[in-house]
Amino acid sequence: MLLAIDCGNTQIVLGVFQGDKLLHSWRVSTQAEKTEDEFLVLLRELFCARGLDLRQIKGLAVCSVVPGVNYSLRRLAIKYLSCPEPVFVDHCMRTGIKLLVDFPAEVGADRIADAVAAHQKYGGDLIVVDFGTATTLDCVSAAGEYLGGAICPGIEVSQRALLSHASKLSHVALHRPPRVIGANTADCLRSGILWGYGGQVDSLVRRMSEEWGRQPQVIATGGLATLISGYSDAIAIVDDQLTLDGLRLIWLLQQ
Predict the structure, then answer these.
(1) What secondary structure does DSSP assign to the chain, as a single string?
(2) Which of 135, 147, 209, 211 could form a disulfide with 152 if both were Cys (CB 3.0 to 4.6 A apart)?
(3) Which positions are annotated as active-site residues?
C-alpha cells in the first residue's frame, strides 16, 4: 500500500492507496512542530479506526508547502514505516508535466501534483482550481504543459482577515443564503463570500481562456471545492482526491 500525504499550511490530507484505488483518506490540522513519533501515534489511530495495518505501507509520497514538516516525515519513513526513502514532490523530478514558467522552483508541490493528476485523468486543456489556504488556478495544456496561473487569498483566510479588522462582524457558517441580496449581516457575509468567490473563479477562468485562446475544462479540488462549485458557472468537475491521485502517479514514475 502507498501512503500519500498532502501537507498544506492549514490542513494535512492523508490517503491510503491499494494499487490505483483510494481506500481511505483523512483530513487533519497542520502542526509544523509535530515530530515523527507524534505522526506515528496519529497514523496508528487513523489506521486502527479503519481496520488497516500500518505495516502494509510500502511507499510514501509527499507534497508539502510546510518545510518544517518534511524532516519529521522523512524520519517517520526511516524509523517506523516499511518503505524506502519517501518521494517528496518537487520541480526537478520526472512527473510527465513540463513546467513552462519563469521560475519552476517556485511552483508549489501541490500544484504540480494537481496538474499531473488532472492531465492524466481528464486530458485536454484544463484549468485546475484548488481551494486551500490560498485559492490557486493553474493552466495545463493538452500536451501536458504547465503554463502558470493565479494565486488568490483563500476563503477562510480572507474571512478571518475581515473579521479581525471589523469589530462588529462575527464568524458565520458558510451555507447557501436565501438571496444574493442579504437581508441581515450574516447573510450579507455569506453572499459576499460564496457568490464572491464563485464569481472570482468565473472571472479568472474567462480572462485566462481569452488570453490562452482555448476553452479549457475546469476541475476543482480542495476542502471547499464542493461548496464553491455551487456558486460558479465555470467549474465542470469537482475531484476531491485530485492531489492524492497526483501523488500516486508521481510516486509510480519514480519506481
Answers:
(1) -EEEEEE-SSEEEEEEEETTEEEEEEEEE--TT--HHHHHHHHHHHHHHTT--GGG--EEEEEES-HHHHHHHHHHHHHT-SSSSPEE--TTS--S-EE-SS-GGGS-HHHHHHHHHHHHHH-SSEEEEEESSEEEEEEE-TTSEEEEEEEEE-HHHHHHHHHHH-TT---------S-SS-SSHHHHHHHHHHHHHHHHHHHHHHHHHHHHTS--EEEEEETTHHHHHTT-SS--EE-TTHHHHHHHHHHHHH-
(2) 135
(3) 110
- 20 lies in which domain range? 2-88
Per-residue pLDDT of the chain (255 residues; tens, 9 = 90+): 999 999 988 899 999 999 999 999 999 999 888 999 999 999 999 999 999 999 899 999 999 999 889 999 988 998 888 777 789 999 999 999 999 999 999 999 999 999 999 999 999 999 999 999 899 999 999 999 999 999 999 998 888 899 888 888 888 888 899 999 999 999 999 999 999 999 999 999 999 999 999 999 999 999 899 999 999 999 999 999 999 999 999 999 998
Flag whether the pTM goes above 0.90. Answer: yes
Asked if residue 59 and residue 130 are part of one domain, the reply reads no
State whether 71 and 111 are in the same domain: no
Specify if 255 maps to a domain: no
